Amino acid sequence: MSRILIDICHPAHVHFFKNTISVLKERGHEILVTSREKEVTVKLLEDMDVPHYVLSTASKGGVVGMLKELITRNFALYKVNRRFKPDVMSAIGGIFVAQVGRITNTSSVVFYDTENATLQNALTYPFASIVSVPRSYEGWLPKRSERYNGYHELSYLHPDYFKPKYAEAVVNGLSQSEETFLVRVVSWNANHDLNEKGWSIELLRSVVSFLGMKGKVIVSSEAPLPDDLLPYSYKGSPSSLHHVMAFCRLYVGESATMASESVVLGVPAIYAAHTGRGYCNEQESLYGLLQNVKDLSEKALIDSIMAWLLVSPEEILSRHKALMDDTINVVEYSANLIERMAVK
What we know:
It holds the Pfam family DUF354. With about 350 residues, this protein is an alpha/beta fold.
């Protein structure tokens, strides 16, 4: 059996790998997880009882801060690699495992879906043993790459692995008496967010005010909210947010990952940001479950919200079935790919 190192640097990476790790363990492989202090990453790992080693804390943003973390985390991962001696390392984004893998002659499997992370990709793809992306990926890829029919979010929100619990959703904020709307705003500190600006506070207030006339509004925010918006902030457990999301009427936000999560759960999504993603484009053009809005104005967002509220739940269900019928078991695929690269 193989020794496999999984490097987890973001909350979404916890979700992506949790089922793959279980499958690999069931197949008899030895797994070591390394982690990073960013948002609720460590808490999610602890909630899921995943043993891990914290190697660094996320930088505050900017090229200098990211470069400092790159150096310190690579050194820490190098030391872990020399002790554990993995047959293969894997990560989403994968800059650390790709670079350290090249230095230590360790196979690296990089999963990614974000085309506009141009700096990270330039520092990762040339060093990776293989890069795996969804079929919808629109950016440059190295020769050592492959595509699959699916999305990252299917690795943890596919019905085979996730069953939304209504009672848990209610305990964590879902309204029982009216429709619930989920709004997400981000901090724009990630490497793929360089030079990107998001929603203004005024735009957030307008969206919350409009949705508040239609039902309950929950705001999930990476940055602290102003006092007048605090009553809307998500106060539930981070590990329960997907249960809440699954029963919402609509998602509106500037997180592409959460937009895709909503779509995979059968909840229509508005992804409102200046930059796009291949998977969001596909979810709009092929399945009609998402709308990309790049005009970050009050009118554009409210017009989009009003249009979605006219689409019947039955129509949404039909579109969602088409998506699920057209995609693969991403957990089995990722576990098989990691296994294959471990024996290279």
